[in-house]
Amino acid sequence: MLIRNKLILRFTLLVLAIQLVFSAFVYYFHAASREQRFINRLTGKAALSGRMLIKRGSLSKGFFGAFRRRDLLTLVGEQVSIYGPGGRLLYLSFDTISQAHNTLYLSKITPEKPVHFAVGRRETVGLLYEHEGRAYRIFTSGIDEFGWAQLEKLQLILLVGNVGALVLIILAGWYFADESLKPISRVVRQVEKITASSLSQRVDEGNQRDEIAQLAITFNRMLGGVEQAFESQKSFLAHASHQLRTPLANLLGTLETSLDYDATLPDTRQSLRSGIEEVRHLIDLTNGLLALAKADSALLPTEPVRLDECVAQALDYARAKCPDRDLRLKFGPLPTTDADVFMVPGNAQLLTTAIFNLLDNACKYSQAAVTVRLGYADAQTLEVRVTDTGIGIAPQEIRRVFEPLYRAANGTAQPGYGLGLALTQKIVQLHGGQMELASVVNHGSTVSVRLPAVAEYGHQPPAF
Question: 131 has which bridge partners?
Answer without folding.
Answer: 134
